[in-house]
Specification:
Structural class of chain B: mainly alpha
Structural class of chain A: mainly alpha
Distance between the termini of chain B: 25 Å
Number of strands of chain A: 6
Strand order of the largest sheet of chain B: 1-4
Radius of gyration of chain A: 33 Å
Radius of gyration of chain B: 21 Å
Largest interface: A-B, 41 and 44 residues
Order of helices and strands of chain A: HHHHHEEEHEHHHHHHHHHHEEHHHHHHH
Oligomer: heterodimer
Strand content of chain A: under 5%
Helix content of chain A: 55-70%
Shape of chain A: elongated
Order of helices and strands of chain B: HHHHHHHEEEHHHHEHHHH
Largest sheet of chain B: 2 strands, antiparallel
Strand content of chain B: under 5%
Distance between the termini of chain A: 66 Å
C-alpha cells in the first residue's frame, strides 16, 4: 500500500499524520506504557522504552488491541511501537493491513493472518501456527484510514528497535522519507547509543539532524547542517536547501548554503560517474557486438551483413542449452559461451567456404551475398523454432545491483558484461599477437601473395579467420541474450551499430574498435539525458557521418603499405 | 541523331521500352474498357500493383545510374524515395481536409490527436500540388547535394560510402518514428482521400497514376540513357573503372559524382512521390535499411550497368515477391536470400547478362 506519494495533498496529509503520531506517541507513552499520567515527557526521556516491567507487559498491550475505539487502539499501538519488542513490527503491519484478528470469547487471542495464504496464520503472542478453523471464526480488528496511516509510521518506529539490522535500516529510511520528527528525538538519541550497525547509525544521525534542523537551537542547527553536509539523501538536500533559504540565523543559513553546494558538487560527480558507467556499459555492448566484425570486416575486408545473424545464432545457442539442461542456469550460461563460439564459428566457416571465398576483391558483391545469407539465416531460425522471441533466463548473480550510495547504483549484469567484453577483447588481442594463427592472419591481411609464397595456406587461414570473427559474434550473442530479447530479428538491431563502431575506430585496427565502441557508448549516454534516447542515437549517427568526411579512414587508420585499398 | 543514340544503339533497351509502351496501352484498356467478366479484364488491384512496380523500376534506374555507371553504391536510396513519398503524402494529407476523423479544416488527424495548435512551418504550402511535387524533387536533391558534397569532397567511396548511406537512412528512420517530428510518427501518413480533386480510390485515378508512373519510367530511362551516352557519362564510366586515373587526367571526379548522385536522388524522389498515392500510405518503414538494400538487389538481379536491366530486375524481383508471398509466404525470405547469393555468385551481370553477347559488355 505504500505508494510513491507525490501529490501535495498526500504529502501534506502524511506530514500532518506523522506529526500527529509523534504527539500521540508522547501522550500515550506516559499514560499507557509508564502508567504515570503526571510525568511530563522531558522528565523521563526514554525511560519507558527500556523498561517495560513496571508498565503493562507487551503481551498485555497486544491483548488490549481489540478493545475500545480507534483512538484507544492508536494509543495502544503507540505504546507497543515504543516497547522495542521484535514481534511488534509484524503485529502493527498486520493490523494496518487488516490481517490482525481477535477471537471472540474469553480472554482474546490475537492472531495474524498470513499475507499470502488466507487459511494460514500465527498467534501474535506465542508465534505458534493457528488452525484454519480458529482463524475462520476470529474477527478482524477494525482500522480506519487515519489509523492505518498512523500505523505505517508506527511500524517504522517499531522497526527502529528491531533486532535485525536490515529491518532497522529500512525503518530508518522510511522515517527519513517521512521527514524529521522532533518528537522522536529522545527515543532516537537513546537508540544511537546502542546502535552498533554502521549504516543504521549513520541513518539515525541523519534522522536526528533532520529533526534538529527544525527545532534545535542555533548551535544544534549548525551541528545538524554539518552532519547533513555529507549526506546524499534527497531528503537531507531538501532540508538543507530549506534551511539555507529560511533559517532565521545568518550563520546557519551560510553553513547550510555551503553544505548544499558541497552536496550538489558531490552529486554532480556521482551523476557524472553514473553517466560514465552507463556509457562504458553501452560501449561494452557495442564492443561485443562489433568485435567479430572487426575481424571479418576490419581484418579481412568482408562486408559481412550477416554479422547480426551470427550474434543471433549465439543467443539461440544460449537458449537451446538452457532448454537442454534446465535448472542449472549458471552452468548453462558458462557452457553456452564455448558452445556459441563453436556453433557460430562453424556457420561462419561454412559461409566463407560456400560463398565468400569466391567474392574476395569484390566488396560490394560480398555485401549483397552476405545480406542474402542473413535473410536465409533469419528465416531458418523463424521456421525451425518460432517467429516469437525465446525466453532466456538470467542466473541469480546477474540480477540486482551494487548500491554504492543513494545517488549511484550499478547493475550487476552491466558490470559483468563490461568485464566480459574486456576479457573477450584481451583474449582476441592475445590470439592475434601471440599465436601462430594470429601471425598468419596478419600476414595474409597484409600481403596475400607473399604469404602464400611463403607457404601459408591462405584459403585455410581465410576460413579460420572468418570462423574466428563469426565465433566472436556468437559469444557476443550469449552476453546480449542477457540484456535483450532473443528473436529472429535481434541481429538487425546490432548490424548498423557494429559497422559504425568499426568504421569509426578505423578498419583493421582492434584497438580502434575498442576506443570507438567505448567512445560512442559514452558519447551516447552523455547526450541522452539532454535530448532522449532516439535523438541521441540520431545525433551520434550524424556525428559519425560527418566524422567519416573528416577522417575517411577512422580514428586510427592503418599506416604504411597495408593502408593501400 | 538523338533517336539513334538513345534507342537504336541499344536493342535491349528499345525492346524493354517497347514492352513498357505496350503495357501502358494495354493495361488501361483491359481495366477500363473490357467488361469485368471477360478473361482479358484486369482488376484495379493489378493496375495499382503494376503501377507500384513501375515506381520501383524508376528507383532501380536511379540506383543503376550511380552504381552501374559511376561505381557509387548507395545503400540509402530509400532515403530519397521516402522523402519524395513524404512530400506527396503531405500533399495528400492536406487534401483530406474536413473529411478526416476529427474534421479539422487545416490540421491532419494525427496533429489534432497530438493537440497541435497550428500547422508546423514545414507543412506550409503542401496544400498545393505543384509545391509538393517540387518538394518531392527538391528535398531529396538537396539532401543528396549536401551529403554527396561532404562525402565526395573528402573522397569517401566504395564500402565506406555504402555504410554511411546506410547510416543516413537509418537515422532518418529513427527520426521519422518520433512523433515530435510532425510526420505522423510510427503510423506515417495514410487515409488519403483525393488527389487534384479526384478520389484516390477511383478506377480512373488509379489508371492515371499508373500511366503517370509509366511515363515517368520512360522519361527517366531516356534521361539516364542520355546521360550515360554523353561525354559526361563517359567520364562517369571512367570514374567507375579507374577513379584515380580519371582524377589525374584532370577531371574533377567529385563534381561528376556529385551531380549524378543528385540527379539519381531526384529520380528516386519522383519515384517515391508516384508510389505513395498508389499504395495509399507512407510510413517510416520506407526508411528501413533493408528496403534500400532490397532495391539494390533489383538492380543486381536485372543487371548492373545496363539501364533497361534495372527495369527488368525491379519487375522480376517484385513479381516473384508478390507471387511468393501469396503462394509460399514461409519461403519468400529463403528465396530472396538465395537470389542475393546466386546472382552475385553466378550472374554478375544480372538477368540481362544471360542474353547479352559478351563483346558488348560495359562492365
Amino acid at each position: 500500500m505504500i505508494r510513491s506519494d507525490t501529490s501535495p495533498l498526500r504529502q501534506w496529509l502524511r506530514r500532518t499524520l506523522s506529526l500527529l503520531t509523534g504527539v500521540l506517541l508522547l501522550l500515550a507513552l506516559p499514560t499507557v506504557a509508564a502508567d504515570a499520567p503526571g510525568e511530563s515527557p522531558d522528565q523521563a526521556p526514554g525511560a519507558p522504552y527500556a523498561d517495560t516491567t513496571d508498565g503493562p507487559s507487551v503481551d498485555t498491550l497486544i491483548r488490549e488491541l481489540p478493545a475500545g475505539n480507534f483512538n484507544d487502539r492508536r494509543r495502544v499501538a503507540a505504546a507497543l511501537a515504543a516497547a522495542g519488542d521484535p514481534r511488534v513490527a509484524d503485529i502493527l503491519a498486520a493490523l494496518a493491513d487488516g490481517r490482525l484478528l481477535a477471537t471472540g470469547d474469553g480472554p482474546p487471542r490475537i492472531l495474524i493472518r498470513d499475507a499470502d495464504d488466507r487459511e494460514a496464520g500465527t498467534d501474535a503472542i506465542s508465534g505458534e501456527a493457528v488452525a484454519a478453523d480458529v482463524l475462520a471464526e476470529a474477527r478482524r480488528i477494525p482500522v480506519h484510514n487515519p489509523l492505518r496511516n498512523a500505523l505505517r509510521s508506527l511500524v517504522a518506529v517499531a522497526g527502529v528497535a528491531d533486532a535485525r539490522p536490515e529491518r532497522r535500516i529500512r525503518s530508518l529510511s522510511r522515517l527519513i522519507r517521512d521527514g524529521g520528527n522532533p518528537d522522536l528525538v529522545p527515543f532516537l538519541e537513546e537508540r544511537l547509543d546502542t546502535e552498533d550497525d554502521q549504516r543504521a547509525s549513520d541513518l539515525l544521525k541523519t534522522l536526528l539532524a533532520l529533526a534538529h534542523l527544525d527545532t534545535g537551537d542555533e548551535a544544534a542547527r549548525i551541528e545538524a547542517v554539518a552532519t547533513l553536509r555529507g549526506s546524499l539523501l534527497p531528503e537531507a538536500r531538501r532540508a538543507l536547501a530549506a534551511t539555507a533559504a529560511e533559517d532565521p540565523d545568518e550563520r546557519v543559513r551560510e553553513a547550510a548554503m555551503e553544505a548544499v553546494e558541497h552536496a550538489e558538487s558531490r552529486i554532480r560527480f556521482f551523476r557524472f560517474s553514473e553517466n560514465l558507467f552507463f556509457g562504458l556499459s553501452a560501449g561494452s555492448v557495442l564492443l561485443l557486438a562489433a568485435i567479430g566484425l572487426a575481424i571479418t570486416f576490419g581484418v579481412m575486408g568482408v562486408i559481412n551483413m550477416a554479422h547480426g545473424e551470427l550474434i543471433m545464432i549465439g543467443a539461440y545457442t544460449t537458449w537451446f542449452i538452457q532448454t537442454l539442461i534446465p535448472g542449472t542456469l549458471s552452468t548453462g550460461i558458462l557452457l553456452a559461451i564455448p558452445a556459441a563460439f563453436v556453433v557460430a564459428g562453424l556457420v561462419g566457416i561454412a559461409m566463407e567456404r560456400g560463398v565468400i571465398q569466391f567474392l574476395y576483391g569484390r566488396p560490394l558483391e560480398t555485401l549483397l551475398a552476405t545480406f542474402g545469407i542473413s535473410l536465409i539465416l533469419q528465416q531458418a531460425v523463424r521456421t525451425l523454432f518460432s517467429p516469437l522471441n525465446r525466453p532466456v533466463a538470467s542466473p541469480e548473480w546477474l540480477s540486482g545491483s551494487l548500491n554504492i550510495n543513494p545517488v549511484l547504483s550499478l547493475t550487476w549484469s552491466r558490470i559483468y558484461i563490461f568485464v566480459f567484453a574486456i576479457m573477450v577483447f584481451v583474449a582476441l588481442i592475445l590470439v592475434m599477437k601471440k599465436t601462430s594463427l594470429g601471425l598468419k592472419v596478419r600476414a595474409v591481411a597484409q600481403n596475400r601473395p607473399m604469404a602464400r609464397a611463403l607457404g601459408v595456406r591462405t584459403g585455410w587461414v581465410d576460413a579460420l579467420t572468418f570462423g574466428l570473427g563469426a565465433g566472436l559474434a556468437g559469444v557476443a550473442g550469449v552476453a546480449l541474450s542477457q540484456l535483450t530479447n532473443v528473436g529472429p530479428n535481434m541481429g538487425q538491431a546490432y548490424i548498423i551499430d557494429s559497422f559504425m563502431v568499426v568504421v569509426f575506430g578505423g578498419v583493421g585496427n582492434l584497438w580502434g574498435t575498442f576506443v570507438g565502441a567505448m567512445g560512442l557508448g559514452v558519447m551516447t549516454k552523455f547526450i541522452e539525458p539532454h535530448v532522449g534516447a532516439v535523438l541521441a542515437k540520431i545525433i551520434v549517427l550524424i556525428f559519425i557521418i560527418l566524422f567519416i568526411q573528416k577522417r575517411p579512414r577512422g580514428l586510427f587508420p592503418k599506416k604504411g603499405r597495408a593502408a593501400e585499398n | 541523331m538523338l533517336t539513334r543514340r538513345l534507342l537504336t544503339s541499344d536493342w535491349g533497351g528499345t525492346f524493354v521500352l517497347g514492352l513498357l509502351v505496350a503495357m501502358l496501352i494495354a493495361v488501361p484498356i483491359a481495366n477500363l474498357m473490357v467488361p469485368p467478366d471477360s478473361p482479358y479484364y484486369l482488376s484495379s488491384y493489378w493496375v495499382a500493383l503494376l503501377g507500384k512496380f513501375l515506381t520501383f523500376a524508376l528507383l532501380a534506374l536511379a540506383i543503376d545510374l550511380i552504381w552501374g555507371y559511376a561505381g557509387i553504391l548507395s545503400l540509402g536510396h530509400g532515403a530519397f524515395f521516402g522523402l519524395g513519398g513524404y512530400a506527396m503524402g503531405m500533399y495528400l494529407t492536406r487534401q483530406i481536409g474536413e473529411q478526416g476523423v476529427y474534421g479539422h479544416p487545416v490540421l491532419p488527424d494525427f496533429m489534432v490527436f497530438l493537440s497541435y495548435e497550428e500547422l508546423p512551418w514545414f507543412w506550409l504550402g503542401f496544400d498545393m500540388f505543384w509545391f509538393a511535387l517540387l518538394m518531392a524533387m527538391l528535398v531529396p536533391g538537396l539532401l543528396a547535394l549536401v551529403f554527396g558534397w561532404l562525402a565526395f569532397r573528402s573522397r569517401v567511396s566504395g564500402v565506406y560510402f555504402a555504410i554511411i548511406t546506410q547510416a543516413l537512412v537509418f537515422a532518418l528512420m529513427l527520426a521519422f518514428f518520433r512523433n515530435e517530428m510532425g510526420f505522423g510518427g510510427n503510423n506515417g501518413l495514410t487515409d488519403f482521400k483525393e488527389i487534384l480533386g479526384f478520389s484516390v480510390q477511383a478506377r480512373e485515378t488509379r489508371v492515371a497514376l499508373f500511366l503517370a508512373s509509366g511515363i515517368a519510367v520512360i522519361l527517366g530511362y531516356l534521361a539516364c540513357r542520355y546521360i550515360v551516352t554523353s561525354r559526361f557519362g563517359r567520364v562517369l564510366i571512367a570514374v567507375r573503372d579507374a577513379e584515380d586515373r580519371t582524377r589525374f587526367s584532370g577531371y574533377r571526379v567529385d563534381h561528376y559524382k556529385l551531380w549524378v548522385f543528385v540527379f539519381s536522388a531526384v529520380l528516386a524522389g519522383i519515384a517515391g512521390a508516384l508510389y505513395v498515392p498508389q499504395v495509399g500510405i507512407i510510413n517510416p518503414g520506407e526508411f528501413s535499411p533493408i528496403r534500400s538494400i532490397e532495391a539494390v538487389l533489383w538492380v543486381a538481379v536485372g543487371g548492373r550497368g545496363s539501364l533497361f536491366g534495372a527495369i527488368v530486375g525491379a519487375f522480376a524481383v517484385n513479381g516473384a515477391k508478390t507471387w511468393f508471398t501469396v503462394a509460399y509466404p514461409m519461403f519468400w525470405l529463403f528465396a530472396l536470400g538465395a537470389l542475393f547469393v546466386l546472382v552475385t555468385l553466378f550472374l554478375p551481370r544480372g538477368l540481362v547478362g544471360l542474353f547479352r553477347r559478351r563483346r558488348e559488355g560495359e562492365s
